[in-house]
């Protein structure tokens, strides 16, 4: 079993509240993460040398700066097989879109190589390693619809109704660092009670992003024709929740040519985790 292909799924922040900024600069937040059955495709092939190679849709990112490479490197001290790996990336998620592409790729790499290299690390240890790569990585390691708190590392699994989503990328790339360091970002939203699901929620980044990137506001306004629209993460992707695949396809078919989009159902367990479980049974 020297090869494995997994989908690094998109995530949506169904809400994102920023509660506080810590002295170290990190923000404390609360967010409801869910996963979509759509994402980047990563193919892992073990090799007889000890090299880590990344090929495919790397967007000319230097290997040493690639989160996939960093994730693989992070597992080197734990690997039990004296083999390297070639990782082929087929990119389907937009960069700077707020759907977790880079973090999902990193988490999926940790999950895959933990099995291929027989590291035998549990998800808690993998999440701790993932947190050193990015605040969202533990969410993808956990792989279940969850409320995230702290800087994203405290996760409580929750159950929500499965829906279809149309996700629209208005071809605007947004820097997460730019948004989280902006003085106008709200940083004092009260923490939710246990009754989070009946309270009014929002994305605290949305107003600022709309102000700085008018194309995002235009996208949100366009999606309102089909239902309540919201931005995910720090943007730029926006989404609308729908009851059926047919409804989602209709929205996508009417998408303006200037934007990109995709449709997918949500799932309580990420596609990468389901695929890995199936592979392990073979």
TrEMBL record:
<keyword id="KW-0067">ATP-binding</keyword>
<dbReference type="GO" id="GO:0019288">
    <property type="term" value="P:isopentenyl diphosphate biosynthetic process, methylerythritol 4-phosphate pathway"/>
</dbReference>
<dbReference type="InterPro" id="IPR006204">
    <property type="entry name" value="GHMP_kinase_N_dom"/>
</dbReference>
<dbReference type="InterPro" id="IPR036554">
    <property type="entry name" value="GHMP_kinase_C_sf"/>
</dbReference>
<comment type="pathway">
    <text>Isoprenoid biosynthesis; isopentenyl diphosphate biosynthesis via DXP pathway; isopentenyl diphosphate from 1-deoxy-D-xylulose 5-phosphate: step 3/6.</text>
</comment>
<keyword id="KW-0418">Kinase</keyword>
<keyword id="KW-0808">Transferase</keyword>
<keyword id="KW-0547">Nucleotide-binding</keyword>
<dbReference type="InterPro" id="IPR014721">
    <property type="entry name" value="Ribsml_uS5_D2-typ_fold_subgr"/>
</dbReference>
<feature type="domain" description="GHMP kinase N-terminal">
    <location>
        <begin position="66"/>
        <end position="143"/>
    </location>
</feature>
<dbReference type="InterPro" id="IPR013750">
    <property type="entry name" value="GHMP_kinase_C_dom"/>
</dbReference>
<dbReference type="Pfam" id="PF00288">
    <property type="entry name" value="GHMP_kinases_N"/>
</dbReference>
<protein>
    <recommendedName>
        <fullName>4-diphosphocytidyl-2-C-methyl-D-erythritol kinase</fullName>
        <ecNumber>2.7.1.148</ecNumber>
    </recommendedName>
</protein>
<comment type="function">
    <text>Catalyzes the phosphorylation of the position 2 hydroxy group of 4-diphosphocytidyl-2C-methyl-D-erythritol.</text>
</comment>
<dbReference type="InterPro" id="IPR004424">
    <property type="entry name" value="IspE"/>
</dbReference>
<dbReference type="GO" id="GO:0050515">
    <property type="term" value="F:4-(cytidine 5'-diphospho)-2-C-methyl-D-erythritol kinase activity"/>
</dbReference>
<dbReference type="GO" id="GO:0005524">
    <property type="term" value="F:ATP binding"/>
</dbReference>
<feature type="active site">
    <location>
        <position position="11"/>
    </location>
</feature>
<dbReference type="GO" id="GO:0016114">
    <property type="term" value="P:terpenoid biosynthetic process"/>
</dbReference>
<dbReference type="Pfam" id="PF08544">
    <property type="entry name" value="GHMP_kinases_C"/>
</dbReference>
<comment type="similarity">
    <text>Belongs to the GHMP kinase family. IspE subfamily.</text>
</comment>
<feature type="binding site">
    <location>
        <begin position="94"/>
        <end position="104"/>
    </location>
    <ligand>
        <name>ATP</name>
    </ligand>
</feature>
<keyword id="KW-0414">Isoprene biosynthesis</keyword>
<dbReference type="InterPro" id="IPR020568">
    <property type="entry name" value="Ribosomal_Su5_D2-typ_SF"/>
</dbReference>
<feature type="domain" description="GHMP kinase C-terminal">
    <location>
        <begin position="203"/>
        <end position="259"/>
    </location>
</feature>
<feature type="active site">
    <location>
        <position position="136"/>
    </location>
</feature>
């Amino acid at each position: 079993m020297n090869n494995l292909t997994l989908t690094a799924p998109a995530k949506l922040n169904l809400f994102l509240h920023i509660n506080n900024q810590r002295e170290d600069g990190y923000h404390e937040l609360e967010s409801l993460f869910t996963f979509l059955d759509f994402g980047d495709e990563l193919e892992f092939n073990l090799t007889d040398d000890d090299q880590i190679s990344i090929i495919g849709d790397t967007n000319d990112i230097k290997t040493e700066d690639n989160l996939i490479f960093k994730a693989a490197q992070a597992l080197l001290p734990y690997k039990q097989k004296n083999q390297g790996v070639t990782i082929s990336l087929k990119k389907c998620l937009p960069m700077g879109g707020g759907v977790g592409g880079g973090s999902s790729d990193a988490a999926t790499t940790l999950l895959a190589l933990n099995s291929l290299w027989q590291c035998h690390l549990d998800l808690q240890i993998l999440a701790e390693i993932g947190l050193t790569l990015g605040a969202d990585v533990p969410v993808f390691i956990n792989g279940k619809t969850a409320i995230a708190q702290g800087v994203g590392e405290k996760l409580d699994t929750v159950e929500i109704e499965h829906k279809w989503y149309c996700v629209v990328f208005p071809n605007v790339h947004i820097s997460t660092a730019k948004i989280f360091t902006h003085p106008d970002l709200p940083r004092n939203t009260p923490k939710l009670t246990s009754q989070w699901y009946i309270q009014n929620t929002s994305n605290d980044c949305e107003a600022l992003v709309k102000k700085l990137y008018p194309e995002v506001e235009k996208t949100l306004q366009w999606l309102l024709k089909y239902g309540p629209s919201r931005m995910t993460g720090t943007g730029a992707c926006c989404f609308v929740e729908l009851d059926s695949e047919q409804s989602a396809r209709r929205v996508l078919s009417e998408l303006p040519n200037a934007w990109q989009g995709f449709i997918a159902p949500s799932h309580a367990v990420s596609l990468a985790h389901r695929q890995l479980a199936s592979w392990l049974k073979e």
